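Subject: Protein record for review, amino acid sequence with backbone structure tokens
How to read it: Take the token row as a discrete description of the fold.
Enclosed: The protein record, placed directly beneath this head.
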Amino acid sequence: MVISKTHDKIYNFTKPNNLPMKILKYLFLFALLSLVALTVFVATQKGIFDVERSKVINSPRATVYNYLNDFRNYEDFESWSVEDPSIQMTFPNKTSGSGASFYWDGVDGKGNAITLKTKEGESIDQKMKYDGTEADVRWILKDTLNGKTKVTWKGKGTMSFLFKIYAALHGGSDRVIGTIYEKSLANIDKNLDYETKTYAVKVDGVVKKTETPYIRQTFTSEIEKVNKNARIVIPKLIHFSETNGLSANGKPFIIYHTYDTKTGLAKISICLPINKEISISSGSDILSGKLNGFDAVKTTLTGDYSHRNEAIAKTTAYINNEKIIPELGWSHLEIWALSKLDVKGSSKLVTEIYFPIKPKVEPVVTTPVYSPETQTQAEPQAEPAPKPVQKKPAAPTPATTTPAQEEEQSEF
């Protein structure tokens, strides 16, 4: 009887179905202990990261800065956004400069970013949050000898518990975050290379510009900072027009009273066309004016604003070739037909440039006179030839234009 019971125990222990179950239990217990050990290890880590990556971007520093300073471009270069189409980004009214922000929501979590401060063309400081992970982000831009831009992207902050686990399993925070930075910097270079090199310049010829009432701010600016100043002033003009019941009557434009490439300075009026002439009381930094109608040579630049010098050169060549007499009282006019307020891609910008010219004098045509007595054609009376006033000037060059006499209600 005893032998029989012992035999049964040995038999039960050595049944084929029991051995795998015991192995699975041991494996489960080992995995559980490993997970606990990993959790304890991760929990004891500080979770602080400090990551930095750099890359030389094949674009001018001003172009790179403007691109990075606008959060609307981040969905086109941030590697995690490019690789995950499920991410939805939300942009408020202000997307560039200090105080700009944006938000994102995806299957892996939610996040937001805000720009704390900027130094024009040099650096951008931001704060980013992502499901418990926070980072102080800094972009630093420097010129290189060949006209390109070295971009350094720094991120310093604390990781959430889940992110610490993820980083521990994938080689550490420097590898995980650094890979994101490297891929994103490569996307920036690729995107900007396309955006800055895709452009077209077309000289449309002689046109008539109709008169336009407007509100404006007038000041002297560095030429390279005109666009920056315009992006600051135009929203103020729009707010002024809305507050005072005015309606915008076209796209913003810039009047260049002077344009001196030797000093790098230009006297400009940044303008918003409105639907009627108005008078503004003294003391306001916003004034009113009227652009009188004038003849001009029009050129259309489609693409990044950095190609405007080529557009000016082609316009000057056209004026010379066609023997057109320029109006030297002021430099030129630029209309932002499609600006960064309308599109985010530089290749889609449209700038219309108008160089004022003297109206072409049409020759006087006399009617043949017949003598009633002889029924023969009399000789036409020739018009006296006008006395030459001056020699025909050369085509305008931005460096030699003359300041215009500024009036309260009319610039010209």
Summary: DSSP finds nine helices and 17 strands in the chain. Confidence is low (pLDDT under 50) at residues 1-15, 371-383, 385-412. The first strand starts at residue 48 and ends at 57.
